[in-house]
Design brief:
- The protein is built from eleven helices and no strands.
- It is mainly alpha-helical and 249 residues long.
- About 10% of the residues have low confidence.
Amino acid sequence: MKKAFFTLAIIGLLSSSCTELLQVVEAIDSERPLTQTEVVSGLRQALQVGSDSAAGTLARLNGYYGDQAVKILLPPEAAVITDNLHRIPGGEKLLEDVILRINRAAEDAAREAAPVFVSAIRQMTIQDGFAILRGGQDAATSYLRSTTYDQLFALYQPKLKTSLDKKLVGNISTNESWETLTGQWNRLAGSLAGQIAGLNKVEVQLDAYLTDRALDGLFLKLAEEEEKIRTEPAARVTALLQRVFGSQN
C-alpha cells in the first residue's frame, strides 16, 4: 500500500514538474522573435483557414441569399425594371425568382472557391508577410484582393457560368430566367410607349456581373475571418496562428 502511494506521489510530482517546465518553455518561446518563415507560414495558414471558412459559409443553402451583407441583387442598370414592375404581368414574382436563382448559382460556385485561393496564398513573399502582419484588420484580405482579383475572376467565372446554365426548378436555368425578365422589359422599352416614357433597355452580361458580386461577398467574409484571427485568441486554431498573431497583441 505504501509502495503504491509512493509511486503515485512520484508520478504526481513528475507531472507537476513537466507542466511547469512546459509553461516555462512556452513562455520562452512566446518571447522569441518571430522568424521570417513563421510569419509567412502563419499568414498563409490564416488565409487558408479564413478562405475555407468564408467559402464554406457562402456555399451553404442561403449562404448568399439569406445574408443581406452579401445577397446579390440585380445590376444597377436593371433599376428601371424594379421601378416599373407593375407594367409587366407577374413581374414581381418573376423578379424574385431571378434573384433567388442568381444567389443559388453563387452558392453553388462557392463550393469550389476555397481552392482557387491556394496558388495565390503560396505566392506571398517575406516582405509581403511582415507588411500584412503589421497592417490593418483586413490587410491580408486587401493584399490578396488587389494582387489576385483578375486571376480569381478568370478562374471563378467559368465555374459560375456553368452554375448559371444549370437547369434548376422547372427545368429552367438562371440565365434563361434572366433572359426572360430582361427580354420582356426590353420589348417594352423598345416599344413606342416605352420610348415615349423614356425607358432604357437593360443589356448586362450576367455572368460577369454575378462573378464580381460573388467575389465581393467572398472577400467580405474572408475579411471577417481575418479580423477574428487578429483579435480573438479563440479563433487561432493552431499553435502557429497563436504565436504569430499573439505577438501582435
